Design the sequence.
């Protein structure tokens, strides 16, 4: 087996991995290996031809490929080694990464630090247990997006989108513009999964009906999808007798994303069942020293911009780690409280600046978002699951956290809560 | 004399609140009242959406001699929302040849709107 030695290996060249590699390079790390299974860097950004990227990071409204290009150019002008069409297939117990590609066969990489940036995968029809036949014409929204935007195939003409995640909404518009008829978007929950701007500009603009509290309960068709049965869902989440049918030849599933952590499990890292990613501290370091993770592999983010920010934090922390100056300090655990599904990072050790990302369990109006110990109390007019709550902890707040007394058990734990103001 | 009042509703996208803003207008299309917004941004958004809604259009064009068959493109600036399908018809007619660079004009000043259709990535041969 071919053997390689490097300082930092970054697995995945999407927005997280590219930002991590560039930040580590900027920090003076000499040998960085950036690995991706696709024939070019950029990851899923290359198929996200719509705009809306970079508003936070560059204050510009960019498309996915344009956003990716900003990073690809910098990588080309650096001495970061990029290994494409290469799959990371294993991480051994002693932190060696095994790669495989057509040119070299298997490669064993010894690195001083590993940054995991594998992104996420789409949930499929099977994972949401939709009954019916198994004809062709059933795609996840992201697969349809790749077919259309990169390979140049229109997946179908008469479409129903199951689930109101952002990719499904984007694809409803994209297919409409290319001449397909999108008959409906169904959503099991009483509120949409995607961003409001996508509901407005992808559905409302084209008069595509959004059926909240509805789900597809049967799929018809032998060789090709011929239609679906849709039922109203009651408060208990069960389908009711109130049903209707739509004839269609294509079904797109946009029913959630799952962090891709097959490699993380080999480390092995404990996976947080709520986020689907490993537990992390505020340097995006996992519980295994020297193994960092960022972006959608850690938890599913709303925006690529956030993913890049996390990549920078992980890249910087990996650089400090291999230079023998990792972030240290007392670790404070952050846990999810009332109306919070999850909060990341899970542990705080830094003293300079930390951004907490929290996902609300359900929409709630006129609320106070608080971090226990009197660290944060902010009023918000609304919180909703589709838009992450961001909490900034500056050095002053982090100092206050440090000074808080430890609990009787010895550790420190802070709770983030969302409570109605009335 | 009873003037007919029209009411158009818009979901504001200026912030996560997503206010339902309704724009009332008379027969001549003049706005008479804006209701439901909670801030000035919301009022401006609803007025713009009522009188001249603008969008960025993104799509792909066919490309020859490149590693992929489609080249992603966008409008270089906002275009009127009611022109999107007409613009798509023009975009669908185009076939370019690699290499193409990010920012290359694929259609210049389309429909005289003062906006170009530009490539959003580099695609070599």
Sequence:
């Amino acid at each position: 087996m071919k053997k390689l030695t490097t300082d930092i290996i970054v697995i995945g060249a999407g927005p997280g991995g590219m930002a991590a590699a560039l930040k580590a390079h900027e920090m003076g790390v000499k040998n960085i290996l950036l690995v991706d299974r696709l024939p070019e860097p950029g990851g899923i950004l290359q198929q996200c031809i719509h705009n809306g990227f970079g508003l936070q990071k560059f204050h510009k409204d960019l498309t996915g490929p344009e956003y990716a290009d900003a990073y690809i150019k910098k990588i080309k002008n650096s001495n970061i080694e990029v290994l494409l069409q290469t799959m990371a297939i294993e991480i051994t117990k002693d932190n060696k990464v095994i790669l495989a590609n057509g040119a070299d066969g298997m490669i064993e990489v010894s690195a001083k630090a590993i940054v995991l940036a594998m992104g996420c995968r789409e949930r499929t029809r099977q994972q949401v247990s939709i009954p019916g036949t198994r004809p062709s014409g059933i795609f996840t929204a992201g697969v349809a997006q790749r077919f259309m935007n990169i390979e140049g195939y229109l997946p179908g003409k008469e479409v129903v989108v199951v689930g109101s995640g952002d990719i499904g909404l984007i694809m409803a518009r994209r297919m409409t513009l290319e001449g397909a008829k999108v008959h409906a978007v169904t959503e099991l929950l009483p509120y949409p999964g995607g961003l409001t701007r996508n509901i407005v500009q992808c559905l409302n603009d084209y008069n595509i009906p959004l059926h909240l509290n509805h789900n597809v309960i049967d799929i018809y068709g032998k060789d090709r999808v011929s239609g679906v049965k849709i039922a109203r869902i009651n408060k208990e989440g069960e389908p009711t007798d109130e049903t209707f049918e739509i004839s269609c030849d294509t079904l797109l599933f946009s029913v959630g994303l799952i962090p891709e952590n097959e490699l993380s499990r080999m480390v092995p890292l404990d996976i947080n069942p709520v986020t689907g990613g490993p537990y992390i501290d505020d340097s995006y370091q996992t519980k295994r020293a020297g193994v960092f993770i960022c972006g959608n592999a850690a938890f599913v983010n709303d925006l690529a911009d956030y993913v890049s920010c996390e990549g920078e934090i992980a890249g910087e922390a990996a650089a400090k780690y291999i230079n023998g100056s990792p972030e240290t300090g007392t670790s404070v655990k952050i846990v999810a409280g009332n109306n919070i599904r999850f909060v990341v990072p899970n542990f705080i050790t830094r003293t300079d600046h930390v951004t907490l990302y929290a996902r609300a369990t359900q929409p709630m109006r006129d609320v106070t978002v608080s971090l226990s110990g009197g660290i944060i109390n902010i009023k918000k007019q609304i919180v909703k699951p589709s838009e992450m709550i961001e909490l900034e902890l500056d050095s002053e707040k982090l100092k206050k956290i440090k000074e808080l007394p430890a609990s009787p058990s010895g550790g420190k734990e802070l709770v983030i809560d969302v409570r109605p103001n009335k | 004399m009873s003037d007919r009042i029209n009411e158009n509703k818009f979901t504001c996208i200026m912030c996560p609140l997503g206010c339902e803003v309704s724009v009332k207008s008379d027969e001549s299309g003049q706005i008479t009242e804006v209701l439901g917004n909670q801030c000035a941004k919301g009022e401006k958004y609803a007025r713009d959406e009522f009188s001249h809604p603008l969008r960025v259009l993104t799509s792909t064009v066919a490309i020859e001699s490149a590693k992929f068959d489609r080249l992603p493109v966008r409008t270089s600036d906002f275009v009127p929302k009611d022109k999107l399908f007409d613009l798509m018809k023009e975009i669908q007619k185009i076939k370019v040849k690699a290499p193409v660079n990010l920012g290359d004009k694929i259609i210049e000043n389309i429909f005289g709107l003062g906006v170009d259709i530009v490539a959003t990535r580099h695609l070599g041969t």
